[in-house]
Amino acid sequence: MIEDDVFHLTPLDVRRYDFGRAMRGYDPVRVDQFREQVAAEMERLARVNQELEAKARSFHEQLRAYRERDKALNEALVSAQELRNDIREQADREGQLIVREAQQEGERLIDAARADLRRLHTELESLERSRRAFVVQMRSLITRQLAELDVVDAASPAAPGAE
Questions:
Q1: What domain count does the chain have?
Q2: Which helix (H) or strand (E) covers residue 141, if one does?
Q3: What is d(CA 51, CA 57) in angstroms, rounded to the nearest whole number?
């Protein structure tokens, strides 16, 4: 394997290279033609290499941009998941708070209803006592009135022809 740093040959090097003259050597015209072909091919390959390097740089830049977008999307996804979890936790807390408040309100209403019921029972018992006392008083009054009538009847002479 040849290191790139060790051997660099340019198309100009190929065109200017002097093979020297020797007896019974290579045909100079054919060598010059071959050198020209090699130089032209090297120029073409250099252009292709430059184009490929430019494409590679472009692809590397696109890859970097895609990686940045991917990173941003992943961060956005993580943020969205965290936000979803936060919202869910907050909704759970609010729901629990609403349930607790509703339970407390229900208990307050039940306690108030029980207090009203006790008050009404007390009033009813009081009214019942008052009614009984009234009935007792009325009986007593009526009994006295009847007794007075009996006394009045017994004290008055018998009416003529009543017997």
A1: 1
A2: helix 28-155
A3: 10
Determine the 3-state secondary structure of 40 from DSSP: helix
DSSP secondary structure letter of residue 8: -
Query: Is residue 99 situated within a structural domain?
Result: yes
Quick check: 48 and 16 in contact, CB under 8 A? no
* Residue positions counted in the chain: 163
Segment 42-52, tens digit of pLDDT: 889 899 999 99
Residues 31-50 as b/e (b if ≥16 CB within 10 A, e otherwise) read: eeeebeeebeebeeeeeeee
9 close to 42: Cβ distance less than 8 angstroms: yes
Q: pLDDT, tens digit, for every residue of 82-104?
A: 999 999 999 999 999 999 999 99
- Spatial distance between the Cα atoms of 110 and 162, rounded to a whole number of angstroms: 71
Q: Token digits for 70?
A: 């991917």
Domain that holds residue 76: 11-153
> Which residues, 6+ apart, have CB-to-CB distance to 35 below 8 Å?
14, 15, 17
